[in-house]
Amino acid sequence: MTTFDDRERAFENMFAHDQEMQFRIQARRNRLLGEWAAAKMGLTPEETDSYAKAVVQADFEEAGDEDVIRKLVGDMTSAGIEIDEPGVRAALEEQAVIARRMFIEAQ
Questions:
Q1: Cβ(63)–Cβ(54) below 8 Å
Q2: Cα separation of 25 and 41, whole Å?
Q3: SS percent in the chain: helix, strand, coil, step 5
Q4: Half-sphere exposure of 12 (CA within 13 A, CB side)
Q5: What is this structure's pTM?
């Protein structure tokens, strides 16, 4: 019975670790996405930092990426940048690859 319990604990720990890594990668992706959008909008370095943090926070509004995409499309459109949802989704995917790479290299 102890072997089974040990194995169960090991799988639970592995699952928790994987979830934490996924959360960190997603947060980094959102920050990179915020920095990308800020550059497009011509924000200052201080504004860029603040905006990137706001994008990370926006992801906590609801499950999935829709809240982040809505925020970026709205903000960029308000700033006079011509962008649509597929354009933001493409940038989101690009930033996800970069975030994953950064995280793996840091290990």
A1: no
A2: 24
A3: 85, 0, 15
A4: 6
A5: 0.84
The whole-number pLDDT of residue 1 equals 62
Q: Cβ distance 55 to 33 under 8 Å?
A: yes
Number of domains in the chain: 1
- 74: pLDDT confidence band, cut at 50, 70 and 90? very high
CATH code at position 21: 1.10.790.20
Rounded mean pLDDT, 8-37: 91
Q: Which domain holds residue 67?
A: 2-106
Give tens-digit pLDDT for 34-56: 999 999 999 999 999 999 999 99
